[in-house]
Specification:
207 residues, alpha/beta, 4-stranded parallel beta sheet, 3-stranded mixed beta sheet, 10 helices, 52% helix
Length: 207
């Protein structure tokens, strides 16, 4: 449901002429990944489709012709960390932590984009270790672009808004198109191969 809502919401604000899109968690955590509450009732195919649709949403956000900001507090795990990573400005609130547990159950999700942010070696280390990365370390790696206190969020978004709207929309869209590098087809193919391996649900349950 949230993938559908984000997809539709993005289309709606773009149609209204938005120049900046801000993603921020409403609760204690930004996003802790897949909702697996109904895992017992679904099969490998349904689970694989959910994961593939998340990747398509991530690619859509990464390719948007406007500036994007993620403001993340608490736990930022799994698909939530991938959502954070696709944004232009990645603001971590002090005390937040990031983790990419997907490889533990055989998923290859967003690895190319992560490597583009932090470098191949650091991406491998983060993904293979599977351990949470604290906010300051995320900043040092390049996963986060800033670490701030919660009371500084409005000011930070205001500064990004000023930069996002300084140039006309056509120029901003062209600059984003030339400076966001991604291998969408390769990332999608790698993910599809990983979810197509038999036993996806069993691997998630074991994790």
């Amino acid at each position: 449901e949230i993938v559908d809502a984000l997809d539709a919401g993005i289309d709606a604000v773009l149609a209204d002429g938005a120049r900046l899109i801000v993603l921020r968690g409403r609760g204690r955590n930004f996003c802790t990944g897949l909702d697996l509450a109904d895992l017992e009732a679904i099969g490998d195919g349904d689970l694989a489709l959910r994961i593939l649709r998340i990747e398509l949403l991530l690619q859509k956000i990464h390719a948007l012709p406007v500036t994007t900001v993620a403001v993340a507090g608490g736990r930022v795990f799994g698909a939530g960390a991938d959502l954070f990573a696709v944004c232009d400005h990645r603001i971590a609130l002090r005390g937040s932590s990031f983790a990419f547990p997907g490889p533990a159950f055989g998923l290859v999700l967003g690895t190319g984009r992560l490597a583009g942010l932090v470098g191949d070696t650091a991406a491998r280390q983060v993904l293979l270790a599977g351990q949470a990365v604290e906010a300051q370390r995320a900043l040092e790696l390049g996963l986060a672009t800033a670490v701030i206190e919660e009371d500084a969020v409005d000011g930070a978004i205001g500064a990004v808004h000023a930069a996002a709207t300084r140039l006309d929309a056509t120029t901003v869209a062209a600059l984003h198109g030339r400076t966001r590098h991604a291998d969408d087809a390769g990332d999608l193919a790698a993910l599809a191969r990983s979810v197509a391996r038999p036993g996806l649900k069993a691997r998630v349950e074991a994790y």
